[in-house]
Design brief:
With 387 residues, the chain is of the alpha/beta class. The chain is built from 14 helices and eight strands. It folds into two domains: 169 residues, Rossmann fold; 204 residues, Dehydroquinate synthase-like - alpha domain (Dehydroquinate synthase-like, alpha domain, Up-down Bundle). A hairpin with a 4-residue loop joins strand 6 and strand 7. The two termini are 37 Å apart. The structure holds 5,6-dihydroxy-NADP and zinc ion. Keywords: Oxidoreductase. InterPro entries: ADH_Fe/GldA (IPR001670), ADH_Fe_C (IPR056798), ADH_Fe_CS (IPR018211), BDH-like (IPR044731).
């Protein structure tokens, strides 16, 4: 196990009554907040009115900034920064999924930064101060509600890049699984793939003696898969929604990666697909992860046989380790098909002509991934396997 430092101050308020408790978690003396959200899902569900009511009854002044798109844009972040400065905002409340939370985090990071906020994503500038943010989560997927990361899309340069700082971890996250009952199936299952991927990026490691986190990862993956099948059967299953919501937060809270070297190649490759084609984050992962597995499994077959045995229950004494490893990958693909996620690039009309550009961008620092370091040529081969 490697040495680590872990800090996660996000207060998690979970359950059907969590929203009514929100006020107690605001920092003292908050006077004016920026209410940040997406298009219209929170208005359709009635959540917007409910939140306004709670804030007004607590004498908190509200400035609204809506319009966060999936794959959140830098231009809106800049508008948010301007509003926060002009209006003297002291807290940002993000109501939505990962895109809204990430947009709120980027605004929070940019408010006190004198230069162009994009420099925080492209240059090694240390973030020294950020506005506090709170979250009401409506889509379990990214884990951004307690993670230290934000991922923003620069529409001008076609780059999708991340920024990480413990200062960006939300102060609190309201997690009411009932708020996820309005999700269309494609968003629910894209979220499921993202959650699984956050576990797998940590699970596939060469770090040894990490038995506790190996077991936590395997248990998390089994729980996510089992509850995804329950939601396929009945999208209104509250208990399954609750399991998925908690899994999403835990998967990316940092706990599952403690003491382990993490990989993250599939995410970086997936971000290039989103930057160029606007494909939903979870869908990029369901196309790339299986191809990545098939390309690299031989580098550490034992890790993959363990994945097959303890996540997909593949036990067969007649089979070789390699056959068992491949069966696990096959079962993973079957699961993705069962939940109607794309597993081939052609399903999302990704063009062969762009493989080179995307591979070049995600390996601009020389390589991508840590479980196996991938060169540009490797990434092109992974794209080819996912065709
Ligand atoms: O805009 P509205 O109308 O709210 O609709 C949204 C949006 O269209 C809708 N939605 C959200 N909650 C709903 C709902 N519709 C009905 N009922 C509800 N309860 O869902 C759509 C997608 O929302 P989005 O926030 O884009 O999805 P997600 O949570 O999957 O976030 C994806 C973004 O997060 C980034 C991704 O790259 C992507 O940009 N990630 C952030 C991470 C982090 N900060 O730690 C880590 C992740 O790996 C990921 O990269
Ligand atoms: Zn993700």
């Amino acid at each position: 196990m490697n040495s680590f430092y872990y800090y996660n101050p996000t207060e998690l308020v979970f359950g059907k009554d969590s929203l009514s408790k929100m006020k107690s978690y605001f920092p003292k003396n908050i006077k004016k907040i920026l209410l940040h959200y997406g298009k219209d899902s929170i208005k359709r569900s009635g959540l917007h009115d409910e939140v306004i009511e709670i804030l007004k009854s607590n004498n908190i002044e509200v400035v609204e900034l809506s319009g966060v798109t999936p794959n959140p844009k830098l231009s809106l972040v800049k508008e948010g920064i301007r509003i926060c400065r002009d209006e003297d905002i002291d807290f940002i409340l993000a109501v939505g999924g990962g895109s809204v939370i990430d947009s709120a985090k980027a605004i929070a990071a940019g408010v006190y930064y004198e230069g162009n906020v994009w420099e925080l994503f492209t240059q090694n500038v240390e973030l020294k101060e950020a506005l506090p943010i709170g979250v009401i989560l409506t889509l379990p997927a990214t884990g951004s509600e307690s993670s230290s990361a934000t991922v923003i899309n620069n529409e001008e340069t076609l780059q999708k890049l991340g920024l990480e700082s413990d200062l960006l971890r939300p102060k609190f996250a309201i997690l009411n699984p009932e708020l996820t009952l309005t999700l269309p199936n494609n968003q629910t299952f894209a979220g499921v793939v993202d959650i699984l991927s956050h576990v797998m990026e940590r699970y596939f490691t060469n770090t040894t003696d990490v038995e506790l986190t190996d077991n936590l990862c395997e248990g998390a993956m089994r729980a996510v898969i089992a509850n995804a099948y329950k939601l396929l059967e009945n999208p209104n299953d509250y208990a399954a929604r609750a399991e998925i919501m908690l899994s999403g937060t835990i998967a990316h809270s940092g706990i599952l990666g403690l003491g382990r070297e993490e990989d993250w190649a599939s995410h970086r490759i997936g971000h290039e697909i989103t930057a160029l084609y606007g494909v939903t984050h979870g869908a990029t992962l369901s196309m790339i992860f299986p191809a990545w597995m098939k390309y690299i499994y031989k580098e550490n077959i034992k890790r993959f046989t363990r994945f097959s045995k303890f996540v997909f229950n593949v036990h067969d004494d007649e089979k070789t380790e390699e056959e068992i490893a491949l069966l696990g990958i096959e079962k993973f693909e079957e699961f993705l098909k069962d939940i109607h996620m794309p597993i081939r690039l052609k399903e999302e009309n990704i063009l062969y002509d762009d493989f080179n550009t995307m591979a070049e961008k995600c390996t601009s620092s020389g390589f991508v991934g840590r479980f196996v370091k991938l060169s540009k040529e490797d990434v092109i081969k992974i794209f080819e396997m996912a065709k």
